[in-house]
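Fold Annotation — chain and its backbone

Encoding — discrete vocabulary of local shapes
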Amino acid sequence: MGNILATITNFIQKFGFWGVFFAGILEQIIVPIPSPIVPMGGGFFLIEKGIPLVEAIKTVFIKVAIPFSLGSTLGATLVFLITYKGAIFIIDKLEKYLEFGWKDIEKVKKKFFRGSPLDEILIFLFMAIPVIPSSLISAVCGAIRIETWDFYLFTFLGLAVRGIVLGTFGWWFGEAYLKVAEGVNRVESLIFILMGLLIAGVLFWGYKNRDKFLGRN
């Protein structure tokens, strides 16, 4: 882990904007990388110390948040597409055991989700909050087949906000940014577990009540 982190931070320090961009891609694909390390490292290495806060935030937006958001959104494509294609494949393959297929899920979606902007708002908020695991959100978006354009747009916007917050933290905390990043990552890991359990619970409850949702009663 130490070698990976050293490589990433050196890469950011050496290549600046493009270092943050490519590190953002890797952060989404390589699980062991603490997700806050990329924007916080960018804030520490790329933003001049001692400048006013407002100026620092503006510089973070250009040098850190934009490349981080672009890279992470691109990296999230892998997780999104795997669950986007995989969910329908698995459910249809197991249809006779589950007693429902993907067509049934589409009927439920049309019945309970009728073009509400809530999906887009939630994607933006979850991607923007630094301690929410973005990879899990990408997986859920793919599994429920969020419109591809909506996923990319609101993922990019949300991660840009995350990049501003964490990049500013990296600049603000200076050499202590690694310890702060580790703390943020621990909270994110805990939330990942809790959200995973919550999703599993909701899926189990939905499965037990599938006849009601599918109008079979």
Notes: The longest helix spans residues 53-93.
